[in-house]
Amino acid sequence: MNLEKIRIERQKWMRWKNIAPLREALDGLVELTCKCDLGDTIRLTCAARNEEVPLGCKENIDAELIKKTAKILMPWRKGPFELFGLFIDSEWQSQIKYNLLRPHFNLKDKRVADIGCNNGYYLFRMQEDDPAKLVGFDPSALYKTQFDFINHFVKSDIVYELLGVEHLPFYEEKFDIIFCLGVLYHRSDPIAMLKALYKGLDVKGEVILDTFMIDGDEEICLTPKGSYSKIPNIYFVPTIPALKNWCLRSGFKKFEVLETSLTCKNEQRRTEWIEGQSLEDFLDPDDSSKTIEGYSAPKRVYVRLVK
Ligand SMILES: C[S@@+](CC[C@H](N)C(=O)[O-])C[C@H]1O[C@@H](n2cnc3c(N)ncnc32)[C@H](O)[C@@H]1O
Fold it and tell me: Where in 40-110 does DSSP place strands (E)?
């Protein structure tokens, strides 16, 4: 597979008629020297003052332009971010997942990939460990543009590839640790995806993955008819024993459950930074233990897989 050819092709996505105006807006942003705080909210402040500068207070921060640009980049699924006082309250409180996983990894000097990295929220936070390299994979022109918007100010060395998990086996370098969060249930061939992750690892590498799960000891999985929690492209939702079988059959030697968690209405909710619906609309209004389709409500399992 010729990745360079795919990269060139996908660079053309930036000229799509819904994306081109967003890219033009980014071109109009001024250069600023910023301080980046990698807490639960990725917070940018003006480095010169080393303190929060409310939007509009400083001549060289064009508050309206930053706000307008952030707004046209909606929907913001992952975050939160704060840009010079402008709070981008994303649909997902991504710090909940990041903080849940935080005790389970140390990225110091590691080559790290985040597959399905969206706008790069986790990657920005992972800089705190001083990894050797951070690479995000996500075939979305919009999320790449959100990343470029934030990174215009952060100026990180994070590499963002408009590639998918299917390209990982052909990637020019291998990784010590691969995060693949919230992607497996979107794949119609989950074992092929797990094999791709395996092939992306260097010897002794590991994967940290999460996916929707159903309770039970049987080696089975739910195959939603049309949608699951109103999400159309959810193909397989396994029990933990079924997920373990998939992982072992993909070549992994070790399968360790790190955590399980139910998605709560505090973690995923409608905000002014998305259009349309969120979790509260996806659950049965009379029984929040069920999705609107009658399946068990979204529950995730977080696992570590070792090569
Ligand atoms: C449910 S979101 C998960 C985002 C983030 N990893 C998280 O856990 O919060 C799924 C992400 O996978 C991305 N995606 C779609 N197709 C993909 C593919 N073929 N390979 C990798 N990521 C993909 C989407 O653009 C989206 O950002």
Answer: 42-46, 81-83, 86-88
What is the amino acid identity at position 92?
W
Write down all domains in the chain, each with its CATH number in brackets: 92-306 (3.40.50.150)
Helix residue ranges per DSSP H, the chain = 3-11, 20-27, 63-72, 94-101, 121-126, 141-154, 190-200, 240-249, 279-282
Closest residue to atom 27 of ligand 1, CA basis:
118
Residue 41 in 3-state DSSP?
A: coil
Atom of ligand 1 nearest to the CA of 137: 21
* pLDDT for residue 59: 47
Which atom of ligand 1 is nearest the CA belonging to 119? 27
Report in angstroms the alpha-carbon separations of 94 from 76, 100, 180, 182: 11, 10, 14, 12
Beta partners for 83?
44, 86
What does pLDDT average to over the chain? 93
Model confidence pTM above 0.90: yes
Give the model's confidence band at 211: pLDDT under 50 very low, under 70 low, under 90 confident, else very high: very high
Of 19, 118, 268, the one to substitute when testing ligand 1's pocket (max ligand atoms within 8 A of C-beta) is 118
- Residue in 35, 31, 30, 63 with CA at minimum distance from that of residue 50: 35
Nearest residue CA, atom 13 of ligand 1? 116
Q: Which atom of ligand 1 is nearest to the CA of 180?
A: 6
* Top-confidence residue, 151 or 54: 151
